[in-house]
């Protein structure tokens, strides 16, 4: 999986091509398909967009019906389908068409509406999801904001959504590691309801940041899969030793294994057996960076001339976490026998 987000744009008319030009300047899209009357091109576009492993937001310029029919063979699941926004070719309406909550289409719809109004279009945002038109934030939107993998919590999501639909209240508490610049609490649903579900969104086990009473009152914990673990090691380090060190660092901080998204290191370690094993077992991906990339960050981290002589940079773990997160948490290094670790958080 990639950490990136990609915009996919397609037009269905000649006027749509002109609007596509405006959107290209606003969004810097990865893929653009201009109107050329080719059904083969259209089909390939949707197939590719719906099969991407990174986060995709798709904008179709044309009639809503044409867009729906074109993408219908690839629509599978509201928790995994990309965000789809449809805009008429005159730019009058910006419609959140698919994955309004989980994919973030509702938020993107409003954002695009503002951008297009800024360049002269009417661009009225059209959102039809039940919670939003009632002024209630959807639980999927909140979880997506904090990188919670929705597919892992299907049954719980049904329970939460039913509770909100029946007029109940949902209180969400956030791990302080996730909300340094945000409120540590959010209320969804009926704020005056006596029927309440208490949830937590966390990187760490709640017992590390809640008192015993509050922890015991939780109905469910969602883990944010947003932790990047930067790492370096000796060559051919024993796999069991490395895995034990990795787990010891996380458990010592109370970090839930479910929170690890990425193991990150230097390109020289791309085939290091101990790292490959840990990444395949605990993370979504193993990402490596070149010496030239990491060397630009050397001044931020405590380093070693010995490490530089062996791998070309003075520090590996901290820069490998920081390059993906720009998180000052990466400045803290955890040194174990034959290996080092540093943590960073992905923050939207």
Low-confidence stretches: none
Rg: 23 Å
Please report the number of helical segments.
13
Helical fraction equals 25-40%
The average pLDDT value, as a whole number, equals: 92
| CA-based shape | globular
| Helix-strand topology string | EHEHEHEEHEHHHEEEHEEHEHEHHHEE
Biggest sheet: strands, sense, closure? 6 strands, mixed
SS-based structural class? alpha/beta
User: Could you say how many structural domains there are in total?
Assistant: 3
- CATH architecture designation of the largest domain: 3-Layer(aba) Sandwich
Count of strand segments:
15
Query: What fold name goes in the CATH topology slot of the largest domain?
Result: Rossmann fold
Strand content: 15-25%
Q: Identify the strand order in the major beta sheet.
A: 2-1-3-4-5-6
The CA-CA distance between the termini, in Å, is 17 Å
Please give a structural write-up.
The strands form 3 sheets. This protein has a 6-stranded mixed β-sheet, with helices on both faces. Strands 13-12-11-15-14 form a 5-stranded mixed β-sheet. Helix 9 (about 240-255) packs across helix 10. The longest helix is centred in the C-terminal third of the chain and has 15 residues, at about 240-255. The protein folds into 3 domains: about 5-130, Rossmann fold; about 140-225; about 225-345, 2-Layer Sandwich (Nucleotidyltransferase, domain 5). By secondary structure, the protein is an alpha/beta fold. The mean pLDDT is about 90. It has helices at about 15-25, 40-50, 65-70, 105-115, 130-135, 140-145, 155-165, 210-215, 240-255, 275-280, 290-295, 305-310, 315-325, and strands spanning about 5-10, 30-35, 55-60, 85, 95-100, 125, 170-175, 185-190, 195-200, 220-225, 225-235, 260-265, 285-290, 335, 340-345. The relative contact order is 0.08. About 35% of the residues lie in helices and about 25% in strands. A hairpin with a 2-residue loop joins strand 14 and strand 15 (about 340-345). It has 13 helices and 15 strands.
């Amino acid at each position: 999986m990639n950490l990136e987000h990609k915009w996919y744009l397609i037009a269905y008319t000649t006027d749509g091509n002109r609007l596509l030009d405006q959107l290209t300047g606003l969004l810097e899209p990865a893929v653009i398909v201009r109107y050329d009357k080719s059904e083969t091109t259209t089909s390939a576009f949707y197939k590719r967009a719906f099969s991407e492993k990174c986060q995709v937001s798709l904008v179709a310029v044309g009639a809503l019906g044409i867009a729906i029919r074109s993408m219908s063979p690839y629509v599978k699941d509201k928790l995994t389908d990309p965000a789809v926004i449809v805009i008429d070719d005159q730019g009058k309406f910006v419609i959140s068409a698919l994955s309004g909550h989980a994919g973030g289409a509702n938020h993107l719809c409003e954002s695009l509406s503002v951008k297009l109004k800024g360049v002269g279009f009417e661009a009225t945002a059209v959102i039809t999801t039940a919670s939003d038109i009632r002024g209630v934030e959807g639980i999927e939107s909140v979880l997506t904001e904090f990188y919670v993998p929705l597919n892992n919590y299907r049954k719980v999501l049904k329970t939460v959504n039913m509770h909100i639909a029946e007029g109940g209240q949902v209180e969400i508490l956030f791990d302080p590691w996730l909300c340094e610049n945000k409120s540590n609490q959010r209320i969804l649903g009926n704020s005056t309801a006596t029927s309440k579900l208490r949830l937590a969104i966390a990187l760490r086990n709640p017992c590390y940041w809640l008192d015993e009473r509050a922890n015991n009152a939780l109905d469910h914990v969602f883990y944010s899969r947003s932790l990047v673990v930067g790492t370096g090691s000796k060559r051919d380090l024993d796999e069991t030793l490395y895995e034990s060190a990795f787990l010891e660092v996380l458990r010592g901080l109370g970090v839930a294994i479910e929170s690890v998204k990425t193991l990150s290191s230097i390109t020289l370690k791309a085939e290091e057996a101990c790292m490959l094993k840990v990444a395949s077992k605990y993370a979504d991906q193993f990402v490596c960076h070149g010496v030239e990339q990491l060397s630009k960050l050397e001044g931020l981290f405590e380093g070693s001339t010995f490490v530089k002589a062996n791998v070309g940079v003075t520090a590996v773990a901290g820069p490998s976490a920081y390059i993906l997160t720009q998180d000052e948490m990466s400045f803290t290094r955890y040194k174990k026998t034959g290996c080092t670790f540093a943590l960073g958080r992905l923050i939207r």
